[in-house]
Specification:
Order of helices and strands: EHEEHEEEEHEHEHEEHHEHEHEE
CATH architecture of the largest domain: 3-Layer(aba) Sandwich
Oligomer: single chain
Structural class: alpha/beta
Shape: globular
Number of strands: 15
Length: 396
C-alpha cells in the first residue's frame, strides 16, 4: 500500500484592496468582441479610460476556493486555505434602483430578440451630458453632466455595433436648443445649437460614422445608411419631450402648451455623412417628423434615399404592417428616455428601455423606481406598456 500523501496548508498572500468600479453594476457582462479594436474602442475623452478587470470577476468573491495539486516529484498535495477576499462587491444605488424596476410588472423576465429593421434610439449622447476633455488635458464636466456617463458611452458603443451587425437602424436624438429656449428659464444653458456641447460625444460619433459607412471592426461589414440623426428642442417656445411628439393626454397631464407637433424630434437631410455635420441649408430641406421617419424605415429596409415622399396617410397604413420594436438608451432615464418610451407606447410601438445603457440625471437622483413605474402606468397604453430590460437580455 503506497504511503499517504502529506497535506500542507499554504497561506495565500493578502489581496490588495481596490476601490469599487462603477462599471461593475452588471456582473458577468461580456465585453463586446468588436470593442477590442483600438480604432473603435479607444477613447479620445478622458472619461473613457476605464478598467475592464471587473468583467473577469463575475463569480462571488466570498466563495471558498480550494485548489488541490499533486507534484510529479512527490506524493505531496498542496491545498490552499480558504480566504475571504478583501474586495467586496457592493451594489451601487443605481443598480439597486434597477433591481426594483426589473422586479416590477414592467421588468422583462427573459430574453428579447433583436431583428433586422428593429430600431435603436439613442437619446442625448452629447457632450453637455457627458464628460469631455479640455485643451490642457484636464477633465471638464458638461453643462448637464450625468454621473457614470462614461459607463453609458461604453454600453452604447457596444449596442451600436451589435445593432449594425444585425441589420437594424440606429437613430441618435440630439438636442439643438436656440439661446432663448424655454427650458433655460432657470439660467442654465445646454446643448445650444452650434456649440461643442451640442455635438454627439467623440467616441460615440466615431462608432456611428464607422457603421454608417458600412465598416465594422476587424474587417467586418454591415449595411450602409443605417444611421439617421434627428434633432429636437429647436423651437424656442416648446419644451422637448424626447423623440416622439407629446400626445394630447400627456400634454394635458403635464400642463404642456403650444404646438405639440413641435415637441418631438425631426429629421433633416445631411449631405455629409458625419453625424455631427449640420443639416443642409436648402429651400426644400423641410423637416420630417420622427413618426414619419419610422414609417419610412419600416417600408424601406435599404434606406437608400431620403424619406421625403411620405405623407400622413402613409403613417397610418404603415402602422398596420411594420415591425414595432424600439430599444431606447442614452441620457437621461427620468426625463427624455422615459418620455420617449411612453410616447412610443402611445404610438403602438413595443418599447424597451435598456437600463444598463442609461442613467438618471444628477438632479433626479432622488427619483424612485415607484415614480417611474407610476409615470408609465398613468400615461402609457396598457396594451403596449414599455418594458425595462438589460442589454444582456437582448439576443442579436
Amino acid at each position: 500500500m503506497p504511503p499517504k500523501a502529506k497535506v500542507t496548508i499554504k497561506k495565500l498572500p493578502t489581496l490588495e484592496t481596490k476601490k469599487p468600479d462603477p462599471e461593475s453594476d452588471y456582473e458577468s457582462e461580456p465585453v463586446h468582441p468588436f470593442l477590442s479594436d483600438p480604432d473603435i474602442s479607444s477613447a479620445s475623452e478622458t472619461d473613457q479610460k476605464l478598467s475592464d478587470k471587473d468583467q473577469d470577476e463575475s463569480e462571488d468573491e466570498n466563495t471558498t476556493k480550494v485548489v488541490s495539486k499533486t507534484t510529479k516529484s512527490s506524493n505531496e498535495k498542496v491545498v490552499k486555505a480558504p480566504v475571504k477576499s478583501s474586495k467586496l462587491k457592493t451594489k451601487s444605488p443605481y443598480m439597486k434602483f434597477c433591481d426594483e424596476l426589473m422586479a416590477s410588472r414592467i421588468g422583462l423576465d427573459g430574453n428579447i430578440n433583436f431583428e433586422s429593421r428593429d430600431l435603436l434610439v439613442l437619446i442625448n449622447m452629447q457632450n453637455d451630458f457627458t464628460q469631455t476633455a479640455s485643451a490642457n488635458g484636464k477633465t471638464k464636466k458638461g453643462a448637464t453632466h450625468v454621473d457614470e456617463a462614461a459607463v453609458v458611452i461604453r454600453k452604447v458603443n457596444a449596442l451600436i455595433l451589435s445593432v449594425a451587425a444585425a441589420g437594424g437602424f440606429i437613430i441618435p436624438v440630439i438636442l439643438t436648443h436656440p439661446k432663448n429656449h424655454v427650458s433655460f428659464q432657470d439660467g442654465s444653458e445646454y446643448c445650444v445649437s452650434g456649440t461643442k456641447g451640442s455635438q454627439i460625444c467623440a467616441t460615440v460619433a466615431k462608432t456611428l460614422n464607422s457603421v454608417n459607412a458600412g465598416i465594422l471592426p476587424k474587417g467586418g461589414k454591415c449595411d450602409i445608411n443605417k444611421v439617421f440623426v434627428v434633432n429636437a428642442g429647436f423651437n424656442p417656445k416648446v419644451p422637448a419631450s424626447g423623440a416622439f411628439a407629446c400626445t394630447k393626454s400627456y400634454a394635458k397631464a403635464k400642463k404642456i402648451s403650444g404646438d405639440l407637433s413641435k415637441t418631438g424630434a425631426y429629421y433633416f437631410h445631411r449631405s455629409h455623412t458625419d453625424v455631427n455635420a449640420p443639416p443642409d441649408i436648402v429651400a426644400d430641406n423641410s423637416p420630417i417628423s420622427f413618426e414619419k421617419l419610422l414609417a419610412y424605415l419600416s417600408q424601406c429596409p435599404d434606406a437608400t434615399s431620403a424619406p421625403y415622399e411620405f405623407t400622413d396617410a402613409d403613417i397610418e397604413e404603415t402602422s398596420k404592417t411594420s415591425r414595432k420594436k424600439i430599444f431606447i438608451a442614452g441620457l437621461v432615464l427620468n426625463e427624455e428616455v422615459i418620455k420617449t418610451a411612453i410616447m412610443a407606447s402611445q404610438n403602438n410601438y413595443e418599447a424597451f428601455i435598456i437600463l444598463d445603457a442609461t442613467r438618471t440625471s444628477n438632479k433626479g437622483a432622488d427619483c424612485s423606481a415607484d415614480d417611474l413605474i407610476k409615470l408609465i402606468s398613468d400615461h402609457a397604453k396598457e396594451t403596449t406598456l414599455p418594458m425595462f430590460i438589460e442589454s444582456k437580455n437582448i439576443k442579436f
